[in-house]
Amino acid sequence: MPSPLRWTVALLITGIIATAPARGEDADLRVQVVESYIDLHTGPGRGYPVAQVVERGEWVDIILRRTDWFQVRTQRGREGWVTRADIENMVTETGDRIRLRDVLYEDYRSRRFEAGFAGGLLEGDTFMMARAGYRLNENLTGEFTIGQASGDFSSSLLYYVAVLSEPFPEWRVSPFFSLGLGRFENTPKATLVGAIKTESNMANVGIGARAYLTRRFVVRGDYRRHVVFVDEDRINEYNEVSLGFSIFFY
Amino acid sequence: MRKRPLFPCTGILLALLFPVAVLAQNPETPAMEQVIQPELDRRPVRIPRIDTEDYEIGGYVGILSVEDFGANPVYGGRLVYHVNEDYFVEALFGKSTVSDQALCDLGLCLFPSREEDLTYYAMSVGFNLFPGEIFPSRKRAMTSMVYAVAGVGNSSFIDENLFTLNLGIGIRILPVDWLAVHFTIRDYLFESDILGSQEIKNNFELTFGASVYF
Fold first, then answer.
1. Is the pLDDT of residue A111 over 50?
2. Staple partner for B103: which of A107, A194, B11, B108, CB 3.0–4.6 Å?
3. Does A5 sit within 8 Å of B93, measured CB to CB?
4. pLDDT tier for residue A6 given thresholds of 50, 70 and 90
């Protein structure tokens, strides 16, 4: 069984175990309707019909949130979905308005972990990669990247660790420089005769910029030059241009 | 406690007792000073801890038909992040097999063995198109959503890595709030020259899957 599959299965099982018993353990948040009424939709989206309404003064329990929709349970045990705007107009048992906190630019500034995908061109061939990074301090990030390029004659798998330096982390669009070391594997197409698979060490330098988009999303563009040490007297160089998205955690 | 705010209170008290004393008051007493100091404890701001479920993880099984190489069972895993009510991003990994048996019967054996592994991965964006409900019985309704997906990825078999586009349509049905059942049809498109000329191959896949929200 290849390892990505094993990971998927492991993740799946962990997901199920982690999700199932956690339900219902926390006390639900009880809120009161102060508008004249609120609509309860049958599902978490504006396209789902309104099945019932809850009137002013009635209490509901918030069960869960899915994007900007909240599932609530009325005193009579009916369940439905409420918009975020309606939730923010309700009050808690202490009489406070609910303040929902979203992921903000400030959280982006204090992000720790980041993972994402990118696509681009590696010396003219389509190139895709996945990467994960850990932010060591404001300016430095350690990152692992695995990428795959598919060309007309061969495909390449490359993976490397890199250090990213961000000299101006406070800028909205923040430039960075990177230095990386890793491995480069080249597999010729099965239809080619006589070509052999190669595996070599590789180093790379790059420049790029990243910008905070919205919520947990970061957009990032890179230019990188890969130097592959094929053997003692042969060095191949490849240019990479890519655009990617990441999700961050803080 | 600051001393100054007490001063006007004392002043008012004195004014009530001895009206004349008011005249003697210093005219420079700040008029805007708050007369009553409410003794309020600031309530701690309550940030509700609401269980947020924007991720979905699951697996699927189905049939993948690889152009020229037969239709075979496929299975895979899928991770989804719901960005908002309209769209989501998805990463998936699948595994199937390709067979050159039909070609081999015609005397054109291509693969080292008749059946070879095929793996693929894809990163896609999904759009929620048609929300709806399914009514399996008189008293039961399950919400559903028809969605479309489009993305990029890679397919790999017999040492070929092929850049792959995918387009698909699916429906998810939620029998309970934390579980989704999916039916999808997808076309994986890649360019291949394995049979001589370089051409675009359409590889259709039909799957049935389940996923949990977390």
1. yes
2. B108
3. yes
4. low
Cα gap B54→B83, rounded to integer Å? 7
Looking at the domain assignment, is residue B157 inside a domain? Answer: yes
Residue A232 has pLDDT above 60, yes or no: yes
Of A12, A46, A187, the CB nearest to B77: A12
Residues A174 and A72 in one domain: no
**A chain contacts of residue B85, beta-carbon cutoff 8 Å:** 44-46, 67-69
Q: What domain range is B27 assigned to? A: 1-40
Report the DSSP beta bridge partners of residue B163: B154
pLDDT tens per residue across span B99-120: 988 888 888 888 888 899 999 9
- Same-domain status, A207 and A156: yes
Q: List, for residues B42-80, the tens digit of each pLDDT value.
A: 655 555 578 888 899 999 999 999 998 999 999 999 999
Choose the closest CB to B160 out of A45, A46, A190: A190
Inter-chain residue contact A66 with B95, CB threshold 8 Å: no
Query: Which position has the token pair 């709806």?
Result: B132
Q: Which CATH number fits the domain that encloses residue A120?
A: 2.40.160.20
Q: Per the structure block, which two tokens stand in for A74?
A: 């009325």
Smallest CA–CA distance from A45 into chain B, residue: B85
Q: Are B25 and B65 in the same domain?
A: no
Q: Are residues B108 and B142 in the same domain?
A: yes
Measured in degrees and rounded to the nearest 5, phi and psi for residue B108 equal -125, 70
Contact yes or no for B85 and A48 at CB 8 A:
no
Instruction: Tell me the C-alpha distance between B124 and A36, whole Å.
Output: 42
Query: How many domains, chain A?
Result: 2
Q: pLDDT, tens digit, for every residue of A138-147?
A: 899 999 999 9
**Chain A residue nearest residue B82, CA to CA:** A67
Handedness of CA B177, B179, B185, B187 (dihedral sign): positive
Q: Is residue A179 part of a domain?
A: yes
Query: What are the chain B neighbours of A65 within 8 Å (beta carbons)?
Result: 50-53
CA distance A246 to A132: 9
Report yes or no on B47 lying in a domain. no
